[in-house]
Amino acid sequence: MDKFVVSSDDCLILKALKDSKSLREAAQLLGCDPAGLARRVQHISSKHGFVQKVNNRWQITSRGMDLVAWTESSILSQKKIFSSNDSLRIASTMWFGEEVLIPNLSKLKDFFNEDISVSLSVPDEGFELSLVSGNVDFVVACHPPENPEIAHKQITEEKWILIAPVSWKKNIKSKSENILEFLKDKPFISHRDINVDLFLSGAAIKKSDISINNLIGIRSAVCANLGWSLVPKILVDRHLKNNELIEIPYEIPTQDRKVCVWWLRNRDGLKRQSSKISSWIEEVCP
Fold it and tell me: Distance between CA atoms of 38 and 172, rounded to whole angstroms?
């Protein structure tokens, strides 16, 4: 294992010499015997050349001053670590963060019963790599990880539903007994996150000439009366309650999709935190 070239005690001696007018004053700052300090300073001088005698007084060399600057910076860094709040770095999809995580961050702090700082992100490198590289502590995703280094806990089912613009409400209500027949001529807004055939049992549908690669965009397109689509209910729960969208009455075949919390197996300290985050997700998921 790599070690410090110069001990932390010797670094503090150099800093004390820099902050003092004499060796005796430096000894008082350090709370040590002046004679013992003099012997140690002589050792630092002969071994590293960080101090030298000038006119019978010890002076720090330029290299020694560089080490003093590093020591002072390290002391400040340690103080920041001990004075800072505990931090949680959570990654999730943009839509899940918008609909579930961000509106319920205050409840997360209640689960920890302590002052914590929370950062949410959508990592560019993907969820698994962001965990393995240490860029995030937890992932909340609607599927399990593939990497065996990553542990996970399934929280709740991710239910998917069909949605349509509010302007279709009257027609959909009158066609509810044969809804797919009605929808087959309506533009379906597709996206890359789903296999439509699995959800709609191979029903013939008319693909829209609009394709969107994220679920928030899909929701906006349906709200804008551009067609209908298939989305997680969590994504549109608020919009359904506010009569900005309508749910199409159709029983979608059950899919094995669960909201999951991920964390690295080899980080033992995260196990306790993962149970709190899992409890939080379980409570706030609609």
Answer: 91
Q: From start to end of the chain, where are the E strands?
A: 51-54, 57-60, 86-92, 116-121, 138-141, 150-157, 160-164, 187-190, 206-211, 229-232, 246-248, 258-264
For residue 3, which phi and psi values (nearest 5 degrees)? -125, 165
Dmax (CA) of the chain: 102
pLDDT in tens, 240-280: 999 999 999 888 776 678 899 999 988 777 888 888 899 99
Q: How far apart are the first and last CA of the chain?
A: 49
Rg (CA), the chain: 31
Structure token pair of residue 95: 């839509």
Contacts of 66 (CB under 8 A, 6+ apart): none
Work out the burial of residue 231: count CB atoms within 10 Å of its CB; fewer than 13 is exposed, 13-18 middle, 19 or more buried: buried
Q: Give CA–CA dist 224/245, Å, rounded.
A: 10
Tell me the angle at which helices 269-284 and 105-112 cross, rounded to the nearest 10 degrees.
Answer: 140
CB 264 within 8 A of CB 131: yes
143 — phi, psi (to 5°)? Answer: -165, 160
pTM: 0.64
CA 105 to chain centre: 13
One-letter amino acid at 252 equals: I
